[in-house]
Amino acid sequence: MQSLTEEKSLTYPPGGWITMGIETSCDETAVSLMEDGRKVLSSIIASQIPEHRKFGGVVPEVASRQHLECIHQVVEEALQQAGKDLEDVNQIAVTYGPGLVGALLVGVAYGKAMAYAMDVPLNGVHHIEGHLQANFIQYPELEPPLLALIVSGGHTHLVKMADYGKYEILGKTRDDAAGEAFDKIARALGLGYPGGPLIDEQARMGNPEAVSFPRAFMEVDHYDFSFSGLKSAVLNYLNSSRMKGENISVPDVAASFQQAVVEVLVEKTVSCARDHQLSQVVLSGGVAANSLLRKRLEEACRKEEISFFVPEMYLCTDNAAMIACAGYYDYCLGYRSGWNLNAAASVPIGQRP
């Protein structure tokens, strides 16, 4: 269990405060303008999926080059969509980590240059905190304390948010993140990239009871995750079936694998919320777009009389609105980033640059 807390109180800026969020942690170049932290004025996302699909995954060098080529245009489109000029922007919030260093550096350098030239505050934002706070955009009435299940291609975390800026990691993956496992199994099934939506699509046509795959629940009263054993079991099943010349039903394997992942995520999350007496659960991250996970976690929370929140699809995947939201609340807590702000491939949630 990792506690990351700091006693700070919120001091809100004047109403109508405009934050520009910039996100370039992986393969999405995203810019958003937010008013008062929760009202989306614009959200522009330039996806690189077509560029990386031919390689079966994200190529860091390609991602960095694509960010360089389009970031200025994305900023211009975000301003135009919001009906704002640069002079209207009061703050710059930019993802500084975790992520691909080369990709992060593009956004960090651009954000620093803009903040310096415009003489406005700069806030480096933790990418995972952004995912968590995407729910604040979707639900303006939502306030901490809460438990967040953050599930993406690189992260699987259970985080207690006691208050703004106060986080405690209650559980995390010990090996593969859930999204990473989805991508690897999709590749093994010949489905392509990105794996999550393709597995979800195939699973709707399959039988989730067709193949019995293991569930790693770890120790009793422990909220860590492990998906490497499940991934290996699926790969072994596929290899064995192919060696024997047996027919492989892709929808059945996808459905059985997806159910194994979802069962662990749901049981761990609800148990953690119950044990820590948290009455609100939020789901966020790219894997939050998975239809079965959204459905099962909502059902489990309702059964336990826990309020459940999950954002719209566009707020689940990487976007800059969530970065603007997190940056706004960091500003309200009194945090500021200096001109020495740098990209960080790996950084604990709650750590400020």
Keyphrases for this structure?
Nucleotidyltransferase, domain 5, 11 helices, 353 residues, alpha/beta, five-stranded mixed beta sheet
Kindly describe this structure:
This protein has 353 residues and is an alpha/beta fold. It folds into two domains: 2-135 and 316-332, 2-Layer Sandwich (Nucleotidyltransferase, domain 5); 144-311, ATPase, nucleotide binding domain (Nucleotidyltransferase, domain 5). It is built from eleven helices and eleven strands. It has helices at residues 49-53, 60-82, 101-118, 127-138, 178-188, 195-203, 228-244, 250-275, 291-303, 313-316, 321-332; strands at residues 2-4, 18-23, 28-35, 39-47, 91-97, 122-126, 146-151, 156-163, 166-172, 280-284, 307-309. The protein has a six-stranded mixed beta sheet, with helices on both faces. A five-stranded mixed beta sheet has the order 4-3-2-5-6, with helices on both faces. Helix 3 links the parallel strand 5 and strand 6 (122-126). It is globular and about 65 Å long.
